[in-house]
Structure formats: C-alpha cells, structure tokens
Amino acid sequence: MHRRIFFAAISVVLSLALVTGCSASTTGPSVKPRHEILGKSAIGTDWRMSQLRLILPSGTGFHVLLKLTDGDKADGYFYLEKGSNVDFNINADSQIYRSAKPSSGNVSSDRFSFIASKVQGSNYVLQFNNTANTTKPVVVFLEVIYPVKGAIYIPMETTP
Q: What is the pTM of this model?
C-alpha cells in the first residue's frame, strides 16, 4: 500500500515538472555580471595596459585580480559609461583603497595608484559592486597599467 502511494506521488511530481517546467535557479544569465576585453597593449618594454568593460546588473559585483611582486606599481582609472553609482575598492591582505563618495553620494569615476608590498601579499583585487537603487545595469570602463612581469586575471564564466 505504501509502495503504491509512493509511486503515485512520484508520478504526480514528475508530471508537474514536465508540464510546468523545472529550473534549478531563478536567476538567468541576464542577471550575471560579465566583461569585455577592449584592449591590451605593451607600453615600452616594462609596462602593460589592459582595458575592460564590466557590465554589472543590479546587486552584482565583479573582481579583477592583479598579481604583483614587492615594489611593483599599478595605476589605473575607471568611469561609468552607463549608470549612476558603483562601489569600488582595492583589497590585498587588507583593504588598501576605497573610492570616496563625493557630496552627490555617487561614485561615477576614480583614479587609483598603488605600490605592491610584501606586507600586503602579491594578489590585489579590484572590486566593483553595483549599489545603485535601480534595476538597470552599471557599465564600467576600466583601464589598468601594471608591470610586464605582473599579470591580470578576470573570472571565467562556465556555461551548463
């Protein structure tokens, strides 16, 4: 008797899943942050420059990792192509920089420069978060200049 009830319940659940569809997640690919590599180039023999466009849907963030050694200098800037506010900070073993909010309360661009130190480690994360109170994405243009011996890494998205 219990066996019949169990198989009947399984049949109902499978039938409903086939009719209504079933999804493992309610978030689609449109709500994930993404990036575009706009350009990379050498600057002389000692420096590299990378340009990225980051598309950050509401409530999402994006991390760019810089791998540097003690004494390496990194320099860059960003501005918003679309949107009104982004939270930006640079972290290593601790936070080394955070964009100051202007009197308007919105960060729409910033310039940064820092020197890597053994104390902070060799991994520096440039972190962008869309904190705007809107459903529209924020689009960030980012340019980073760093030594040739350094490296820049961006998340790789996997598709099912």
A: 0.76
